[in-house]
Amino acid sequence: MIRLAHPGHLEDWRVRLRDESRAFRRTIVVTAGVCGRAAGAERLIEALQTESKRRGLEHLIGIRVTGCHGFCEIEPSVVIEPEGFFYGRLRPEDAAEIVERTAGSGRAISRLVYRDPVSGRACPRTQDIPFYRKQNKILTDAHFHLNPDSLEDYVARGGYGSLSKALFEMTSESILAEIKMSGLRGRGGAGFPTGLKWEFGRRAEGRTKYVVCNADEGDPGAFMDRSLLHGNPHAVLEGMIIGAYAIGAAEGFAFVCSEFPLASARLGRAIEQARERGLLGLSVLGSEFGFDVRVIPGGGAYVNGEETSLIAAIEGRKAFPRQRPPYPSVSGIGGHSTTINNVETWANVPLIIEKGADWYAGFGTSKSKGTKIFSLVGRVRNSGLVEVPMGVTLREIVEDIGGGALQGRTIKAVQTGGPAGGFLPASMFHLPVDYETFVQAGSMIGSGGMIVLDDQTCVVDFVRYYLGFLRKESCGKCAPCRIGTRRMHELLGRMVEGTAEAKDLEELESLARTVKSASLCGLGQGAPNPVLSTLTHFRTEYEAHIRDKKCPAGVCRGFGPVAEARS
Amino acid sequence: MEDNDIRNILRESGTKARDIVPILLRVQERFGFVPPSVLPAVARHVHRSESEVFGLLSFYRAFGLAPKGRHRIAVCHGTACHVRGCVALLEGLSKELGIEPGGTTSNGVFSLETVDCLGCCAIGPFGLIDGVFYPHWTPEAAIARIDQLRAEGTNR
Questions:
Q1: Is B65 inside a domain boundary?
Q2: A168: closest CA of chain B, how far (Å)
Q3: What is the value of pTM for the model shown?
């Protein structure tokens, strides 16, 4: 194996890899992220390989197993390159026909072609499908084109070119300036300007500095970060190396929750490959910059994602948050400056370095730049991961990409920002996706969860679910959160059981305000948000439960028949 | 046997505070739970008190202190699964098995648990038995599968 001891070695290798990759007539690309596998992707892959071998076509058609393509609803699915034909909801029995046709005429197999359930129209190619057409996959397009376990695939597509550019054509200062100009903001939830955070890290005192990748994605109903690590782990790693160079860090940690075994395996494999090739280690690409990354497994706790808790967890303590300041960029792991970014933030970095800040800032709104990945789930036709430029409206996401409501149902709201986020009723679907707009509307973008609720979702039950989750995940360090989440959960329990009184609602509201202002960290400060946000938009649902003893959605039992409750 | 496994895990592990969680994760993976009897050895290995190790053990979701059933049934209780009706699924399983989530049947055959979100929202509500996914699961289908497993158990 050739160690890349010079930027020229990387470019030579890339040219060679590109020549080799032209060997196949066509390639069958199989999506096999976690949900693809859950839906049977592995059996499909096996069947495709068997059929291809049986017919002696292995030299003609390639079979590439990739990470998640985002359209979870119809997995397992394949894309045929170069034509871009798309077949979804496949069974192993379909493999023979796919192999035969792909090796032969290459025309689309009409029986397997996707039909848009809204218009009934056939959509033979990926770009014909409404779910994909409205997206702008600058970050996740790679998930179609590379095997995540293959450094070669990543390099052939230009991978580590940004690192090479950063190390040999740019200075730390000019990288910082580029990231600042791009307008990139933290994708983990807070939306803090990434360039500024890096600058704090760079200017911090002390020689020992760390960078951390926060991959403890804990919001239930959100799986953007996992998908990036499943689909393109090298992009995240390349972002970290560039960041470490700009900041002056020699060591990095990727904190991955142990509940995501595939994500940590893929990232771990990527790190090993990068080490073997000299993209990590004492002399990155032959430069004077040395850097290495270690994967740290998390034990599983929602609060782990909070940055001061994350530091405690990496140090081997219970994940208790602490007061800020000092911020981690001043005092983090072992008291050293630590720059913590979310997975998606890191993954954006190579793109910005490659294509420039101006290009990146061309996507989005005046204050929210670039694209954002959302996990669009719940009571919506097309569940999946969608990458859109900031500034598109909620309606475009829910209706055009998501395909709107399930058969015969009416969408009433989208809940965004995870358990600490808020609810945006259907009357607000004209709002553009933008950090400030969402906050003004009483919610937040958060890490990118979007849960669609319809007329069969009970808001009170839903909020109770979140409070149950937060009560369980409250670390217990500060009393407002520890006791407040428990008490709010109990009050909501009385409401869904039909035993609540009017004063319970007053108590819930007042308690929510106290917990919000008195809690130590984001978990407690955000815990009351579902309550407060729904009291703004859906107070009548609470009143129906308390005063009329009815659940308008027909979810909460212990009340009268559903038909009566709906009237 | 158990002692040997623990010794091997410790031999391959570091001795700092930050090594405690990785050690416990390996123990959990090996036994399906963390036997309390391993605490003294782990604590000695990392030069910490048993109470500190126990503190981490009880703090994180990944660890259990009691053995699980022969068949581990999990239901995803993420947000999307919640609004798609996983509560009914969970209640159906709970009633059929006569245990609450987190419990194990007295004969040690089945244990039932919830997971917070596995990122497979499109196939919700869903469950897993021994790591195998059951997309769009209904209480009826789940109970039918349990009956199958019971029959296989008596035939053996």
A1: no
A2: 35
A3: 0.96
The answer to whether the beta carbons of residues A61 and A27 sit under 8 Å apart is yes
Chosen domain end from A454, A481, A511: A454
Give the CATH number for residue A438: 3.10.20.600
Q: Say which amino acid occupies B104.
A: T
Shared domain check, A340 and A282: yes
User: Is A117 within 8 Å of chain B by CB?
Assistant: no
Q: Read off the amino acid at residue A209.
A: K
> What total of structural domains would you count in chain A?
4
Number of neighbouring beta carbons within 10 Å of residue A111: 8
- The rounded Cα A200 to chain-centroid distance in angstroms is 26
Q: Are residues B48 and B78 in the same domain?
A: no
Q: Is residue A15 part of a domain?
A: no
The token pair that represents A533 in the structure block: 């946000």
Both B48 and B113 in one domain: the answer is no
- Cα separation, A64 vs A45, in Å, equals 9
Whether A97 maps to a domain, the answer reads yes
Instruction: Return the residue in A31, A34, A35, A452 with the most chain B beta carbons within 10 A, the one to mutate for interface testing.
Output: A35
Residue A170 lies in domain: 158-360
Three-state DSSP at A179 gives: helix
Q: How distant is the Cα of B109 from the closest Cα of chain A, in angstroms? A: 24
Work out how many domains chain B is built from and give that number. 2
Q: What is the pLDDT along chain A (567 residues), one digit of tens a residue?
A: 789 999 999 999 999 999 887 778 899 999 998 888 888 999 999 999 999 999 999 989 999 999 999 999 899 999 999 999 999 999 999 999 999 999 998 899 999 999 998 888 999 999 999 999 999 999 999 999 999 999 999 999 999 999 999 999 999 999 999 999 999 999 998 899 999 999 999 999 999 999 999 999 999 999 999 999 999 999 999 999 999 999 999 999 999 999 999 999 999 999 999 999 999 999 999 999 999 999 999 999 999 999 999 999 999 999 999 999 999 999 999 999 999 999 999 999 999 999 999 999 999 999 999 999 999 999 999 999 999 999 999 999 999 999 999 999 999 999 999 999 999 999 999 999 999 999 999 999 999 999 999 999 999 999 999 999 999 999 999 999 999 999 999 999 999 999 999 999 999 999 999 999 999 999 999 999 999 999 999 999 999 999 999 999 999 976 644 433 332
Does an H or E element contain B9, and which?
A: helix B2-11
Residues B18, B53 within the same domain? yes
Residues A553, A562: Cα–Cα separation, whole Å: 8
CB contact residues (below 8 A), chain A span 183-242, against chain B: 218-223, 226-227
Q: Residue A459 corresponds to which tokens in the numbers above?
A: 């808001």
Q: Do A300 and B18 touch (CB under 8 A)?
A: no
